[in-house]
Design brief:
This protein is an alpha/beta fold. The protein is 38% helix and 15% strand. The protein has four helices and five strands. α3 links the parallel β1 and β2 (97-100). It starts with 12 loop residues before the first helix and ends in a 6-residue tail after the last strand. The mean pLDDT is 84.
Length: 147
């Protein structure tokens, strides 16, 4: 006996049961896959990320037209965090070239662990602060400097 399918309601009961079983298996597999994905790929909140270079953005107008500037830090530049700050400062202030640990420049960026150390450093150098960032980083100028 051959059936022509014109209306799914007119299908034989065996075909209806088979269709319902297939639909249930697909639904069960979808639920199982969704639960597995939810377990191994949980929704995460975006992590806050601070670009270390933003600490130096406010110094850029003061350094416009300068080819080089010194960069002084009392932290170990071989450690990851101080090195990261130096590299991102270089990126932020480009095309200016930062000269790490060289204070024999007209302008020097002083990035110390705390503000009193930074102030003591530029006072010892006989330099004057030109600008400061909210992050405790100073741009100092050495008035006696001649290139």
């Amino acid at each position: 006996m051959t059936h022509t399918i014109t209306n799914p309601i007119n299908l034989p009961w065996r075909h209806k049961i088979l269709g319902a079983l297939i639909a249930l298996m697909i639904a069960g597999q979808t639920v199982q896959t969704t639960m597995t994905l939810a377990r191994i790929w949980p929704l995460k909140h975006p992590a806050a990320f601070a670009f270390a270079g933003q600490k130096f953005e406010s110094l850029a107008p003061w350094l416009k037209g300068q080819a080089y500037a010194g960069y002084y830090t009392d932290r170990n530049i071989d450690d990851t965090r101080p090195l990261l700050e130096l590299l991102q400062a270089q990126n932020t202030l480009a095309p200016l070239i930062l000269d790490p640990e060289n204070i024999n420049r007209r302008f020097v960026i002083v990035n110390c662990a705390d503000i009193p150390r930074a102030i003591a450093k530029f006072k010892a150098m006989g330099a004057r602060p030109v600008a400061a960032t909210p992050y405790g980083i100073f741009l100092i100028e050495r008035p006696e400097f001649t290139p």
